[in-house]
Amino acid sequence: MPVKRYLLVLALVLTLAISVACGPFHPAVVPSSSAGPLPLTVTFLDLGQADCTLVQEDDKTLLIDAGTNASAQKLVSALKQKGIKKIDILVGTHPHEDHIGGLDAVIKNFNIGAVYLPEVSYTTRTFNDVLTAISAKGLKISLSKPGDTFNLNKASGTFLAPNSSSYEEINNYSLVVRLKYGNIAFLFSGDAQNLSEREMLAGGYELKSDVLKVSHHGSSDSTSSAFLQAVAPRYAVIFVGKDNDYNHPHEKTLEKLSALGVQIIRTDLRGDIIFDSDGIALNVRTQR
User: Fold this and answer.
1) How would DSSP label each residue in the chain?
2) Per-residue model confidence (pLDDT) at position 11
3) Which pLDDT score is estimated for 20?
């Protein structure tokens, strides 16, 4: 078989394999109501089996989680390459290393506005490093309760969880944030499990969102059918490492998302996942 034809066939096979794994991905470009770059950018950074989301609205920045210890310098470099000097709002959803591992490096390397952490202690070196970095910079931890809000410029965030003061599972302490910008909404769910999802549903909070950051890397212990129906997302973003030891995302989670026609985008297959919006249009692209 000629080399060019072989390479073409190979490319088609690889494309089909990716489509089967996470469904077809079609970059969406919706006509904007404004000229030039759209003012809100939400980047789901590919740091392996870890969470890290950067929100930029004009000169304001929000960072939700910061990857692992091992990916800390990669994150710092990526933020500096984007010209970021200050993180206005820094959120560590819960104390697991795959969410706060790089938080101390971010605090050391950038000016920080507010730092939000859940009200729970955790006896790990990673968590202690974060507390030490906060203290060394003279910062204070901001606590939140469901319904509390914060603002960037026009974008506003609302904390929806945790709704109890004590849980058996650390994941359920996850700070869950819904970000609203014009007619567009994002839901960042940390690693909140089914119990926390039920509490949010019972609380009657506004959950409907265009983009859902799928909880706990697509594990079977979250993204319940009832919660998913309430959120009714157009896009589902899954932070997941290639060939991870946990077999994330779980097949049942993928099936539930697909059954509702949600477009699934995974960091292990697509790299960084970037949404741009002016509050009306919502464009999505990926890059490695």
Assistant:
1) --HHHHHHHHHHHHHHHHHHHH----------SSSSS-SEEEEE---SSS--EEEEETTEEEEE----STTHHHHHHHHHHTT--EEEEEE--SS-HHHHTTHHHHHHHSEEEEEE--S----SHHHHHHHHHHHHTT--EEP--TT-EEESSS-EEEEEE--SS--SSGGGG--EEEEEETTEEEEE-TT--HHHHHHHHHTT-----SEEE-GGGG-TTS--HHHHHHH--SEEEE---TT-TT-PSPHHHHHHHHHTTPEEEEHHHHSEEEEEESSS-EEEEEE-
2) 45
3) 40
